[in-house]
Amino acid sequence: MNDTSKSVGQGGQKPVSWINHEERQHCRFDYTAPEVLLSLSVACPEAYEHAFIVGSWVWVQFPEAPAPATRAMLSQMGFHWSSRRKAWQHPCGSPEGVGVGGDPIRRYGMQSARALIHGVAA
To answer: Does a structural domain hold residue 14?
Structure first.
């Protein structure tokens, strides 16, 4: 049987489409933070509500685990999960692995995407 989908998460959850890795790579390194945020606000508004800017990266931190379809959408958009930071992170064109170490929130601060883009109080 030719299966073109995979399950994300644990038992009983609906299957989601495979990730197009070529498109994902393009999304990771060819978009700036404002472009990522605009795309996120349209394609995944439930994630946009939890988006933050940390340095030149976009982070999404949910209070609870998001639905499998939301995780798949974030991955397709170029985000990756950081278990250490408990956040979905998008490099927004910044090369990965070039960090100076330490806590990026302490170094750069963390600003709500809504506050930055819309002037809304965080």
So the answer is: no
